[in-house]
Write a structure and sequence with these properties.
The chain is of the alpha/beta class. 48% of the residues lie in helices and 15% in strands. It is built from 9 helices and 8 strands. A hairpin with a 5-residue loop joins strand 5 and strand 6. Bound molecules: adenosine monophosphate.
Length: 215
């Protein structure tokens, strides 16, 4: 099963992808995570991407498309994958179509997590993750059960993304509106876009996605 998650930053794409990854044994491909790994090891790609990411701008289509092409060809993607954070522009959506045709693959569902923009800034700026297992938390809506201890793995170290600061979030939302929202009609026309109310609690969003995928 191959799935695309669309939605603004903070809509819950990462949280829901992690659930689907476990449930269906398919891999999450997060272009943001891949870029952060490149930045962390100071690679050429990381050096090109860092300033853009820090300012909330999108990285070039060519770079991202090349990254996805390599990633999808890897063995662990054969059973299926979840695209989280890609495509983000019309050029990326079109390149993905061509790539899938050449690989003989198709997309089974495009899930759009719809969330009102006015709640996103609070959601994103309160977000933090466990360093050890990557579980995502929020200061207000989803803190760990025991303060400072990860519910999932017992880890004690947490981190916040540099681009989750309020100033950068404003720019990321602008980029979403300008470049990413316009690709929704592209998938709507293909008849494979399913809109989920991303403002429900995470487990209700999960249940809605599960029910849809069972159909
Ligand atoms: P994310 O973790 O998906 O919010 O991505 C973090 C940052 O990585 C974005 O603000 C962009 O700077 C960059 N990025 C991630 N995915 C893409 C993409 N598909 N196209 C362009 N830039 C991306």
């Amino acid at each position: 099963m191959n799935i695309i998650f669309l939605g603004p930053p903070g809509a819950g794409k990462g949280t829901q992808s992690r659930f689907l990854e476990k449930k269906y044994g398919i891999v999450q491909i997060s272009t943001g995570d891949m870029l952060r790994a490149e930045v962390a090891c100071n690679s050429d790609i990381g050096k090109q991407a860092k300033a853009l990411m820090d300012s909330g701008k999108l990285v070039s289509d060519d770079l991202i498309i090349a990254m996805i092409k390599n990633r999808i060809a890897q063995k662990d993607c054969q059973k299926g994958f979840i695209l989280d954070g890609f495509p983000r522009t019309e050029a990326q959506a079109e390149a993905l179509d061509r790539l899938l045709v050449s690989e003989g693959k198709t997309i089974d569902a495009v899930l759009f997590l719809n969330v009102d923009e006015d709640i996103l800034a609070d959601r994103i700026s309160g977000r933090f993750t466990c360093v050890q297992c990557g579980k995502i938390y929020n200061d207000i809506s989803n803190p760990p059960r025991v303060d400072g201890v990860c519910d999932a793995c017992g880890g004690h170290e947490f981190q916040r993304r540099a681009d989750d600061k309020r100033e950068t979030v404003v720019e990321r939302l602008k980029e979403y509106r300008r470049s990413t929202a316009p690709i929704l009609p592209f998938y709507e026309k293909k008849g494979c876009l399913y809109t989920v109310n991303g403002m429900l609690p995470a487990d209700e969003v999960t249940a809605e996605i599960e029910a849809f995928l069972k159909k």
